[in-house]
């Protein structure tokens, strides 16, 4: 729990710390170079286990307060054992979480108190792509739709602007709608 | 645990079921239309909780065997409470899991027994983008690197080909290196 000693906490966001972080990065732009990481270990079939802990940022090697582990798998209809969500579902979760975190930060910075933020993200995919059955079909989502419900102490237009600004500054929205160079290396011994 | 009554299970993949699924979709391509979903509820600050359960596929509404929930947050250095990984880290986890699931399926189909598959995914991001401090910097990852270790009963060249084929058929690799239309709707009442 954040203790609001100076009245700067809004929506659970310490706006003083947020603005101090912005000022620190303005003064030293290289502090904004981050590297995030995920480790993965195959278990069996389509089941694997991911581990997230260390990252680099603000000039030094860091770690989360605890190690996060997540299983991924396919459901039975996709020849898996359903030990976790599909990898593609984790992408939808990431998008919702990214837009929501940004929304809370932006609302706090603009002095808007939120009372509720919910969203549903859907991703339509034609598995003729990944199954290699139709070369005209892409492997990934053909379209993603996000439906937000946002409530707070501001007019509807202001609440909608929060979502728009969060979209405009979202890391996950960017990697889905833009293109990221992905390099793959393989070691076999 | 999959019981291998007919010797068709390899790497934990029931290859008979895998080929039967391919044949079923070949016979009825619309069965390959899937929709995955994630729900998200804002908790406080940058902390939100995602829920994954229902999906549509193979012609009907379905659900995972259990409901999966995942917290996402920012670490303290990014003005959060570290209640979960960052949304951007979930994307790296999804990529590793997708490439790994594909690799196990492809190896099974090709008759290769895997003994170990591990990977590390790193994503470099310059937060001057999402902080709005430099318009030349993108919001998302500037580059992603995947380092695989793959071991099994095949020559190194064959093991490398598994990774290459998995990349060529990966849903998550596709959405990161391609572009997905993302539509956002907002309700405020």
TrEMBL record, chains A, B:
Gene source species: Jiangella asiatica
Name used for this protein in its record: OsmC family peroxiredoxin
InterPro entries: KH_dom-like_a/b, OsmC/Ohr_fam, OsmC/Ohr_hydroprdx_reductase, OsmC/Ohrsf
A Pfam family hit: OsmC
